[in-house]
Amino acid sequence: MEAVKLAEPAVEERKDFIRTKGKQKQQLKCDADSVAGCVSQRACVYCGARVVLNPVTDAIHLVHGPIGCSSYTWDIRGSLSSGSDLYRYSFSTDLGERDVIFGGEKKLALAIDELVQKYPAKLVFVYSTCIVGVIGDDLEAVCKAAARKHKIEVIPVQSSGFIGNKSAGYRAACDALLRLIRSPDGELPSKTRSINYLGDFNLAGEVWIIKNYLKEMGIDINVAFTGDSSYKALKNATRASLNIIQCAGSMYYLAQKLEELYGIPYMNISFLGLEDTASSLRRIAEAFNDPEAGRRAEELITRESALVRDQIHWYRQRLEGKKAAIYVGGGFKAISLIKQFREIGIDVVMIGTQTGRPEEYDAITDLVDEGTVILDDANPSELEKFMVEKGAHLLVGGVKERPLAYKLGMAFIDHNHNRKHPLSGYAGAVNFAAEVYSTLCSPVWNYI
Amino acid sequence: MNNEHYRNVNENPCHMCMPMGGILPFKGIEKSMVIIHGSQGCSTYMRRHIAEHFNEPIDVASSSLNEKGTIYGGEKNLKQGLDNLIKLYNPGLIGVLTTCLAETIGEDIDRIATSYLAERGLENYPLITVPTPGYGGSHSEGYWLAVRRIIAALARKTASHSKINIIVPNISPADIREIKRILRLMQVDYTLCPDFSDTLDRPYARPYKKIPDGGTRIDDIKNIAGAPATIQMGLTADDAFSPGKYLENEFGVPLYNIPIPMGIEGTDKFIGVLKELTGNPFPAELEMERGRLLDCMIDSHKYNFQGRSVIFGEPELVYAIARTCMENGIFPVLAATGSKAAKLHGLLLPLLASSPEQAEILLEADFTGIRERCRELKPNIAIGHSDGKFLTEREGIPLVRMGFPIHDQVGGQRLLSVGYAGTTMFLDRVTNTLLEQKHKNYRASMYEKYYARPAI
Predict the structure, then answer these.
(1) Residue B7 CA to its chain's centroid (Å)
(2) Same-domain pairing of A339 and A426
(3) A140, A132, A145, A138: which is closest to A156 by C-alpha?
């Protein structure tokens, strides 16, 4: 067997964040602050919160802070809506120097007044940014007063950028959702035979794909968190008798809380890849203890698998033996990708995430081959070094990683929130294979 | 005509923040890197935005300020960040930009920078600080201030030489290359700053370099004060941020502040200044290009005359586009910028006064405001960056992309719009968009107007 070389970073403080499977037994360091100056690919708390909440379609998303935070997050994601499209607007209190000196509370209150008048909405999310915490604006008080005045929900999102990393933002978003769900009079709507689908943001209609599958099985989605969700649907979240979690990184905390507070059990599922989609559908039927749902699931699985089998096989023949590098936001996505690549004959030689949790890194380590480099909160230097060292043919990542791959003459898969094609379910599995094929087998590589 | 107004809420921003603008000039200095003193997200969001426009890897470090740094000061973070940045990139120059957070907690970056260099024994290292709080202005001000601080940090009294300073605003790498080509044709010795024509639009080449080749040479900037003159395409830059003003005030370098060389008049002006400064003749090649532009203008004039334009974006570009539109009868009905841009207002007023259309000017605009005005003013073509996409989606006004950022189409870095040749290409993009609209709609609209529902 070929000797496994140890992955070494250029910066000492980064050493514990990088492991080579098979060589190092100690736990990978993760969920820690980024090391200054290393050009981390991570964003901030606000980013995490905005990613999770922005798909709530009929809410006013108001960013309390200077313009940048709002500007850089305006309609940059591919979440689709079947109703309102208010979520595609980005509102900001656009704080200036004067506001920073004298405080921004008054301006925020007036901003909410104006917006509520102009855009009738039952829900306002007010995102806190870095300086809001520092200048001492009392977001809670302003939101509370505005809610009383307008008789709607105005929920502060504690997402000051410096209070943690992106995961802290997920948590802030979940806390905001929990406040929304909480009933003021303590009364809860009665349970129905339906599920909440957590951690799908309806990119390119992914929630709709899964909704159709479940409908065929006789199970309704009560509300998805948060793809194509609305104020009303979220308010009734406690009606569901089961929570299924796709993106665990952002939603695990919410699922735990919903179980603790409202007794709704949860389970992890994944609709990425053929294998995971089939097993998730079966497990959901089992959770409902419903043989009829199970029978319908089998029917669906047999029918849909047959439809895509030949296509996937065709791609697999052309892709077999290629090597992939993965660098994505969360652990769930990373784990799913390893399996998806396996379905089309591709091995993963480098894998990392921005916000993976220890248990997710354990799962990753179990799944990958010896010698695979696993890294948390990587930077361009490390991505370049390990992708080249491991001979990766393609990288999966987001917008920032794409030009790096291309400059290295490497194929690239967009697995970010602004993609325009679904990767979920059976249709998604074919889309994924087709995208890998389109980037690995393009004639342009003949010229470099 | 409207003027600025205080507003409680910005709905769909038409501008970005100051440090974003500050990054770009540093990308145009040889072997340089930038670190942003603030929380991790600032640098990542800006990198993402810039990378998507240029389709280039954009490496910008962050001091990754956390809660502790925010409470007790971020000096340690910034110094550690500088250490790591140097270890990973070995840059020849580093820019330190601040953020809302760093400025609000009162970080003294000049002191931190000085003490860092002393501690590491790097006294002569070019570590250039730029105070860019996000609330201090738009990305346009950040851009100008960064250029000014780079020059102020490096320029020193030096012997006179023949290289003319050319200071460019935030235009595309292709535009910068075109300006350099014109300078070559005019046989002008020059120092162009900032020059991101290669660094932010680099050819595919192996091996990959973390810091791309190209950019204004640091030595050239050191000697910038010995230039015979500065030509700055920055009429809208506030004097306090203006690099050309700095060189004029500090070193007595005569300043020729001119618009971006777009259109006949704009390019003539640039060439005219070059002729005046060098005494060199107008080369035949440029004469031909000027003739071709005139030919293009005549060929398209009737189509262009149908155009009623809304123009938005960075002040300097809005002014140049408005001038070019005025030359061609694509009369602006609305010119808007997200920046304060007091100077732009003063420049646009006399320009638009000669227009047969009533034109409005919106400063500190947001896109909801722009759209509201458009519903009344009924422009049929929009010219500006990608964030104007709702004008097409919601108001049905086609958008000719121009400026920064362009993130819903490719090629923002390759858009050529300056000089005679570039203006020709710009006009073709505009005219063809108008023609496409015409072809798309005229059969149905004529049918509707004269056959289905005739008025008489």
Answers:
(1) 25
(2) yes
(3) A140
Q: What are phi and psi of A20, to 5 degrees?
A: -110, 125
CB spacing of B78 vs A36 below 8 angstroms: yes
CB contact under 8 A, A72 and B62: no
pLDDT the model gives residue A6: 63
Cβ–Cβ contacts within 10 Å for residue A363, how many?
Answer: 17
Count of CB atoms situated within 10 Å of the CB of A37: 28
A23 and A62 share one domain: no
Q: CB–CB of B213/B33 below 8 Å?
A: no
For A121, half-sphere exposure in the C-beta direction (CA atoms, 13 angstrom radius) is 30
Question: Whose CA is closest to B96, among B145, B139, B56, B138?
Answer: B145
Same domain for A209 and A150, yes or no, is no
Query: What is the domain-level CATH number for residue B227?
Result: 3.40.50.1980
Tally the residues of chain A: 448
Instruction: Give the strand pairing for A91-92 and B10-11.
Output: antiparallel
Residue B252 lies in a domain: yes
Residues B345, B410: one domain?
A: yes
Per the domain annotation, does A330 fall within a domain?
yes
Do A379 and A408 fall into the same domain? Answer: yes
Kindly state whether residue B145 falls inside one of the protein's structural domains. no
B97, containing H or E segment = strand B93-98
- Minimal CA separation from A84 to chain B, in Å: 14
| pLDDT (tens digit per residue) in B373-426 | 999 999 999 999 999 999 999 999 999 999 999 999 999 999 999 999 999 999
Full residue range of the structural domain in which residue A351 is found? 12-36+306-447
Q: Which of A378, A380, A381, A414 is nearest to A395 (CA)?
A: A414
- Same structural domain, B31 and B74: yes
What are φ and ψ of residue B279, in 5° steps? 75, 5
Peptide bond into B398 cis (omega under 30): no
Q: Distance (Å, rounded) from C-alpha B359 to C-alpha B333?
A: 4
Cβ within 8 Å of residue B167, ≥6 positions away:
B147, B192, B193, B230, B231, B232, B233, B234, B243, B244
Mapped onto helix, strand or coil, the DSSP state of residue A412 is strand
Q: How confident is the model at residue B4 (pLDDT cuts 50, 70, 90)?
A: very low
B98 and B222 belong to one structural domain: no
Tell me B348's DSSP state.
Answer: H
Which residue carries 């005229």 as its tokens?
B442
Q: Which of A40, A92, A406 sits opposite B13 (nearest CB)?
A: A92
Nearby residues of B374 by Cβ (< 8 Å), 6 or more positions away: B310, B334, B382, B391, B395, B397
Last residue of a domain, one of A302, A323, A352: A302
At B67-101, the pLDDT tens digits run 888 889 999 999 999 999 999 999 999 999 999 99
Q: Which of residues 44-63 of A touch B (CB under 8 A)?
A: 44-47, 62
**Domain CATH code at residue A415:** 3.40.50.1980
Interface touch B9/A65, C-beta < 8 Å? no
Domain limit, last residue, from A160, A181, A202: A181
Judgement on whether residues A239 and A331 belong to the same structural domain of the protein: no
**Cis peptide before A380, with omega less than 30 degrees from 0?**
no
Domain that holds residue B107: 18-137
A154 touches chain B (CB under 8 A): no
- Record: contact A90-B368, CB cut-off 8 A: no
Cα distances from B377 to residues A210, A246, B12, B346, in angstroms, run 45, 48, 20, 22
Q: How far is B349 from chain A (nearest CA, A)?
A: 27
The torsion angles phi and psi of A18, rounded to 5 degrees, stand at -130, 135
pTM of the predicted model, to two decimals?
Answer: 0.96
Same domain, A60 and A109: yes
Q: What percent of chain B has pLDDT over 90?
A: 96
B147: its two tokens: 């250029």
Which pLDDT value is given to residue A1? 40
